[in-house]
């Protein structure tokens, strides 16, 4: 695996900071995330860049932005075409000024709003915003959201693009392939082994769920992944709320589930026990998984 590395590229993105979710009813969505993950409401405001009213929640270290269209713009375009679902992702950087300079040098247009850099182009279907990294004490019952999955026509080209514009370090990347779910690609880990945060870039095959999603939508965001100390607690809450989820195949009980998009406003969410995802992220020794657990999901 060979990508074009950039001098000083390590840690230009420190973590996945937030997800952006288009919903019909922000109050209903906020209530669902609070009941399920212990999320807390932080703010109500609006974004002219997104053309949306916004409710911001915190769950674990991560933010969840709930968007409803307020006029023309990306949120309206997404809602008109797809309804509800995962629209975009936010990444944290230690220096917003340095990231702006990197984007300028790579001719990546962006708009500044409230100090954040909203990329105006998403050639591989991942609308992104870059935010100054700040410490947050975790709240609720998850650790963080650490991954978004980005199916694309050519995972190597997408990885090279993200490496170039974000200054990622290819030496940290982990190749991934799943016959079960029908994809191959790469995990662009930002800061291993300290954090799991990454973009999962995939190229789909075989007619499975991710492949069908890609054939319908093209390059886009398919799902996100979060980790928690207590997967059974989330299972119990899902059961109590009558929400749909499934166990990951081949995984020990209490380690890995998938929450159905119908349960979370059009967004598929993977849940892994804290550190368990290292099993397929290049450091199975950190996962705590029983011997014989399959490496690739």
From TrEMBL:
Q: What is this protein called?
A: Catechol 2,3-dioxygenase-like lactoylglutathione lyase family enzyme
Database matches in Gene3D superfamilies: 2,3-Dihydroxybiphenyl 1,2-Dioxygenase, domain 1
One GO term (biological process): L-methylmalonyl-CoA metabolic process
Entry's transmembrane regions: none
Q: What superkingdom does the record give?
A: Bacteria
Q: Can you give the residue ranges of the VOC domain? A: 15-148
Tell me, what is one Gene Ontology molecular-function annotation carried by this entry? metal ion binding
Q: Which UniProt keywords apply?
A: Dioxygenase, Lyase, Metal-binding, Oxidoreductase
């Amino acid at each position: 695996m060979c990508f074009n590395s950039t001098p000083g590229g390590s840690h230009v993105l420190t973590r996945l900071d937030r997800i952006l979710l288009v919903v019909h009813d922000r109050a209903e969505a906020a209530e669902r995330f609070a009941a399920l993950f212990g999320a807390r409401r932080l703010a109500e405001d609006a974004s002219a860049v997104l053309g949306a009213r916004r409710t911001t929640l915190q769950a674990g270290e991560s933010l969840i932005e709930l968007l409803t269209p307020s006029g023309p713009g990306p949120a309206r375009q997404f809602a008109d075409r797809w309804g509800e679902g995962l629209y975009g992702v936010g990444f944290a950087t230690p220096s917003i000024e340095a990231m702006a300079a990197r984007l300028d040098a790579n001719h990546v247009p962006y708009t500044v709003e409230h100090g954040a850099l909203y990329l105006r182009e998403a050639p591989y279907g991942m609308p992104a915003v870059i935010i100054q990294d700040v410490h947050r004490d975790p709240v609720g019952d998850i650790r963080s959201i650490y991954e978004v999955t980005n199916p694309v026509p050519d995972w190597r080209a997408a990885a090279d693009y993200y490496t170039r514009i974000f200054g990622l370090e290819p030496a940290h990347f982990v190749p991934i392939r799943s016959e079960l779910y029908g994809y191959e690609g790469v995990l662009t880990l930002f800061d291993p082994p300290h954090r799991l945060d990454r973009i999962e870039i995939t190229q789909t095959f075989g007619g499975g769920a991710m492949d069908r999603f890609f054939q319908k939508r093209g390059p886009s965001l398919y799902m996100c992944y979060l980790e928690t100390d207590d997967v059974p607690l989330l299972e119990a809450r899902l059961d109590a709320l009558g929400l749909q989820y499934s166990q990951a195949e081949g995984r020990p009980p209490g380690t890995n589930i998938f929450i159905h998009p119908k349960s979370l406003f059009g967004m598929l969410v993977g849940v892994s026990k804290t550190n368990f995802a290292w099993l397929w992220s290049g450091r199975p020794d950190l996962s705590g998984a029983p011997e014989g657990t399959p490496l690739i999901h």
